[in-house]
Recover the amino acids of this structure.
């Protein structure tokens, strides 16, 4: 009988008094795919090999920074140069492997922009995409590494600028990119022009200077990629408002009088200071719309169309939300989280060792492997870790421990009921499984709701928790179980005292 | 131990915690963070101690409905109504001139009114959707009575958490009791944990019920709770240890988050042991089919 804690009810049915072949086995299957017939499971070489392979891959990815340092002849300590990239050329595999830290952990500015008053004749999403490319251009030309500009929802844009404070961010985004059209005239550019335009671009044609035509981006009503019906080549259609149309008509009429190839025949499009297009004028373009042809690929035509549109943003871009995190604050948060994680892991391991003895050692090993696998997944798939994400991870450690606790409590019961070590461990895993499965699936359900409907911050939490929970199920049912079976096979490990159980009285 | 037999006392204890919370929520509502209310928030760190009152006096000159709260001796938390870009720049420049600011340790957030509205709708909806899906899953795995009792325990935890936060934020007027996106994350975690805990005990009941037994349903539930007790307490203790550590060392801006997790996990453990399973017994008595 059970020598459990004092109870009011006597348990007339010790948990596992059934013998093999007697009645229906209480738990036939783990899941649809894995059918375990009761007490047939022993150390499984294939599963052990699987654990070993997973462990080696995980440790390789976790330690990849060192491999990368060795491969690129860098010292093993100190700051790392470049981003560790793992490439396997013959498989076409190339992936940057490092922990992507969110802005709240590395410091920087996160902005959410909203586009309103969208110009007529253009959809919200198209306006959003144009604005994304304009902003991307501004951000990139400011040279900030690892910045992100991406569309969000129908009319929002998210901009993330690591290591940039809000004032700098506003300066980067606040300067309107300005499109101007110039012509080339004989002479040399004066100081004022060189100030206004990029000197290299302004001196592109020796002996000629750019002269402003008074046509700017605000006069362009639309530009789009099109196809030349005669040659089937991609080109760019452009249309002007009435003022732009008149100016463009006069300008092109004047330009076609010069022979092709002569810079004076050319139309120079500048965005801010940079020359983006220098095209020949083939005929006068009056009536408000024209086509720029010649030498485009589909992609370059598209790019030019976007740039022409970008002379003026397609609507009003306003700041919907902004978050700025100081660099030191971010680093402090990381330090604290790591400290908490290490502290938590230590407590958990100590607790497991003291309370569950030998199985506690097994669980600690399984837990370390679990942490290594999860971290490797974060690194490999480039999952951005934020504070909420880290919390999700730490919580999943708790759930991984829980799976082990569930199993060991059952093992103890089975041992008290007088089962042999191997059988008790097996039964422990089997009997704990439905609880592990159902509780973790509920957590995964919550995670998917959060992921699909939640705000970005909540998404990060959901992803790390879901990964953690999934890995923890593998860890509990495969790793812990196999390790336990190995331990059960070792002769010195057979003393029940190692399991925190007194030997059952002879029945 | 007879937990099921004393169930009414445990229900009473839960009510004693939940009722003041509900009253506070009804009368005072929540202390909404800028995520929900919209507005600007400066979390400023200084190189020397600065009094919140001094900063408050300075902020009052801008007329932006600023509230300033002390956050440690070397920091303050300033919340204002939504600022224009120009206002924001002016205020920051002014504060930098008058106080020993430490920008690398500071943070700032601004949330416009449109985004705030979306988040409010989103947070409530998420809890509802997640609950419905969990009910469906548990109805398949157990039956609908188990599923509904699990959700009642879950709601218990949500009410305990939101109630305590309403009291913290509005009655005690602590910045700790602020409802923001991180709080929603904490609440969702608690939901996951609460259901997790409840399921472990339900699984035991399911298993014990399957074995032909001379025990009554009530005895069976009590036995199952006691059989799972070691596990429930052990698991929660490890998580609580980690969270207490996190709470003590976490910076001001995430203290509220760790506290919410802590309250929620404790409540979740309590509700799965003392509420969810005894509720099954109550239901069985009312409807003995």
């Amino acid at each position: 009988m059970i020598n459990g804690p004092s109870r009011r009810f006597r348990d007339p049915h010790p948990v596992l008094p059934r013998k093999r072949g007697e009645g229906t086995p209480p738990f036939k299957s783990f899941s649809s795919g894995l059918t375990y017939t009761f007490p047939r499971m022993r150390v499984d070489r294939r599963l052990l090999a699987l654990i070993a392979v997973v462990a080696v891959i995980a440790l390789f990815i976790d330690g990849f920074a060192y491999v990368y340092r060795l491969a690129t002849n860098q010292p093993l300590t100190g700051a790392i140069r470049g981003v560790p990239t793992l490439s396997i050329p013959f498989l076409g595999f190339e992936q940057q492997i490092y922990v992507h830290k969110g802005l709240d952990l590395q410091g920087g500015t996160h902005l959410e922009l909203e586009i309103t008053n969208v110009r007529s004749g253009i959809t919200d999403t198209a306006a959003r995409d144009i604005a994304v490319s304009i902003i991307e251009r501004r951000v990139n030309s400011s040279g900030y590494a690892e910045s992100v500009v991406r569309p969000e929802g129908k009319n929002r844009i998210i901009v993330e600028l690591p290591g940039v404070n809000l004032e700098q961010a506003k300066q980067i985004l606040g300067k309107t990119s300005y499109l101007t059209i110039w012509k080339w005239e004989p002479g040399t550019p004066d100081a004022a022009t060189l100030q206004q335009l990029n000197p290299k671009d302004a001196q592109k044609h020796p002996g000629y200077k750019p002269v402003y035509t008074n046509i700017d981006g605000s006069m362009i009503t639309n530009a789009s990629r099109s196809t030349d019906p005669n040659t089937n080549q991609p080109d760019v259609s452009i249309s002007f408002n009435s003022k732009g149309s008149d100016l463009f008509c006069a300008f092109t009429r004047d330009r076609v009088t010069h022979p092709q190839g002569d810079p004076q025949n050319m139309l120079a499009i500048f965005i801010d200071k940079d020359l983006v297009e220098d095209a020949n004028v083939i005929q006068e373009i009056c009536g408000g719309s024209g086509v720029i042809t010649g030498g485009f690929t589909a992609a370059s035509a598209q790019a030019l169309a976007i740039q022409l549109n970008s002379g003026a943003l397609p609507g009003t871009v306003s700041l919907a939300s902004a978050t700025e995190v100081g660099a030191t604050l971010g680093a402090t948060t990381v330090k604290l989280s790591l400290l908490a994680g290490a502290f938590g892991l230590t407590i958990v391991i100590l607790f497991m060792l003291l309370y569950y003895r030998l199985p506690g050692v097994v669980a600690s090993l399984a837990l370390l492997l679990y942490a290594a696998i999860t971290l490797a997944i974060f690194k490999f798939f480039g999952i951005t870790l934020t504070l909420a994400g880290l919390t999700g991870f730490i919580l999943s450690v708790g759930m991984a421990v829980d799976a082990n606790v569930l199993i060991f409590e059952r093992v103890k019961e089975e041992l008290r009921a007088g089962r042999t070590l191997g059988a008790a461990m097996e039964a422990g895993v089997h009997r704990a499984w439905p609880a592990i499965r159902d509780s973790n699936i509920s957590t995964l359900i919550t995670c998917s709701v959060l992921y699909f409907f939640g705000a970005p911050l909540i998404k990060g939490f959901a992803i790390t928790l879901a990964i953690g929970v999934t890995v923890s199920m593998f860890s509990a049912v495969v790793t812990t179980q196999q390790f336990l079976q190995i331990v059960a096979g070792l002769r010195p490990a057979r003393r029940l005292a190692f399991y925190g159980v007194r030997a059952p009285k002879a029945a | 131990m007879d937990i099921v037999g004393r169930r009414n006392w445990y229900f009473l204890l839960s009510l004693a915690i939940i009722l003041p919370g509900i009253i506070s929520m009804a009368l005072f509502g929540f202390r909404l963070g800028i995520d929900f209310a919209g507005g600007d928030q400066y979390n400023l760190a200084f190189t020397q101690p600065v009094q919140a009152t001094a900063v408050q006096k300075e902020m009052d000159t801008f007329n932006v409905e600023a509230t300033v709260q002390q956050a440690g001796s070397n920091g303050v938390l300033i919340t204002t109504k939504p600022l224009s870009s120009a206002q924001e720049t002016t205020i920051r420049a002014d504060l930098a001139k008058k106080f020993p600011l430490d920008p690398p340790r500071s943070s700032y957030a601004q949330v416009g009114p449109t985004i705030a509205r979306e988040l409010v709708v989103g947070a409530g909806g998420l809890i509802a959707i997640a609950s419905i899906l969990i009910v469906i899953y548990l109805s398949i795995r157990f039956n609908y009575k188990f599923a509904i009792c699990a959700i009642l325990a879950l709601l218990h935890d949500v009410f305990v958490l939101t109630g305590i936060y309403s009291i913290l934020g509005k009655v005690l007027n602590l910045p700790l009791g602020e409802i923001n996106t991180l709080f929603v994350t904490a609440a969702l975690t608690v939901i996951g944990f609460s259901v997790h805990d409840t399921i472990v005990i339900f699984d035991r009941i399911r298993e014990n019920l399957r074995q032909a037994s001379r025990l009554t349903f009530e005895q069976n539930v009590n036995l199952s709770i006691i059989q799972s007790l070691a596990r429930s307490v052990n698991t929660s203790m490890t998580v609580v240890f980690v969270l207490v550590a996190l709470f003590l060392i976490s910076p001001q801006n995430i203290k509220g988050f760790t506290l919410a997790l802590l309250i929620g996990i404790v409540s979740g453990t309590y509700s799965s042991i003392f509420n969810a399973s005894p509720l099954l017994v109550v239901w069985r008595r009312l409807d003995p089919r």
Summary: The radius of gyration of chain B is 23 Å. Chain B touches chain A through 78 residues (CB under 8 Å). The domain at 7-34+114-286 of chain B is CATH 1.20.1640.10 (Multidrug efflux transporter AcrB transmembrane fold).
